[in-house]
TrEMBL record:
<keyword id="KW-0479">Metal-binding</keyword>
<feature type="domain" description="Rieske">
    <location>
        <begin position="6"/>
        <end position="112"/>
    </location>
</feature>
<dbReference type="GO" id="GO:0051537">
    <property type="term" value="F:2 iron, 2 sulfur cluster binding"/>
</dbReference>
<dbReference type="InterPro" id="IPR036922">
    <property type="entry name" value="Rieske_2Fe-2S_sf"/>
</dbReference>
<keyword id="KW-0001">2Fe-2S</keyword>
<dbReference type="GO" id="GO:0046872">
    <property type="term" value="F:metal ion binding"/>
</dbReference>
<dbReference type="InterPro" id="IPR017941">
    <property type="entry name" value="Rieske_2Fe-2S"/>
</dbReference>
<keyword id="KW-0408">Iron</keyword>
<keyword id="KW-0411">Iron-sulfur</keyword>
<protein>
    <submittedName>
        <fullName>Rieske 2Fe-2S domain-containing protein</fullName>
    </submittedName>
</protein>
<dbReference type="Pfam" id="PF00355">
    <property type="entry name" value="Rieske"/>
</dbReference>
Length: 117
């Protein structure tokens, strides 16, 4: 496993199906907005860019989940994403996916492992 690259947040900052934490990630495409949420007990991180139109998903800062805390949802046109794979399961970009980022939870904190662009 790659060494943790950068601290994102404390583990306690992420409740299951709750608000996410925004951060930025350097990629070969430049610095991009990103976010991490907790789902099925694990931190799940993605570039904060809808697969439909490259806008940020959250309608207010940190609000990435639908009302049930089951899917990630884009506030602009309602694209709905699987929080594990990032695949769009409903909406205008069905079949596309969010760009997943590798994170790890160590010592009560969530760390970015690195972005490959
Ligand atoms: S921009 Fe996200 S669904 Fe259209």
């Amino acid at each position: 496993m790659a060494a943790p690259e950068r601290l994102i947040c404390a583990s306690d900052d992420l409740a299951e199906g709750g608000d996410g934490v925004r951060f930025e990630v350097d990629t070969t495409s430049g610095r991009l907005p990103a976010f991490v949420v907790r789902f099925e007990g694990q931190p799940r991180a993605f570039v904060n860019q809808c697969a439909h139109v490259p806008v940020e998903l959250d309608w207010q800062e940190g609000a990435f989940f639908d009302a049930d805390g089951r899917y990630l949802i884009c506030a602009t046109h309602g694209a709905t994403y699987d929080p594990v794979s990032g695949a769009c399961v409903f909406g205008p970009c069905r079949g596309a996916a969010l760009k997943k980022l590798a994170v790890v939870e160590v010592d009560a904190a969530v760390w970015l492992l690195g972005a490959d662009g």
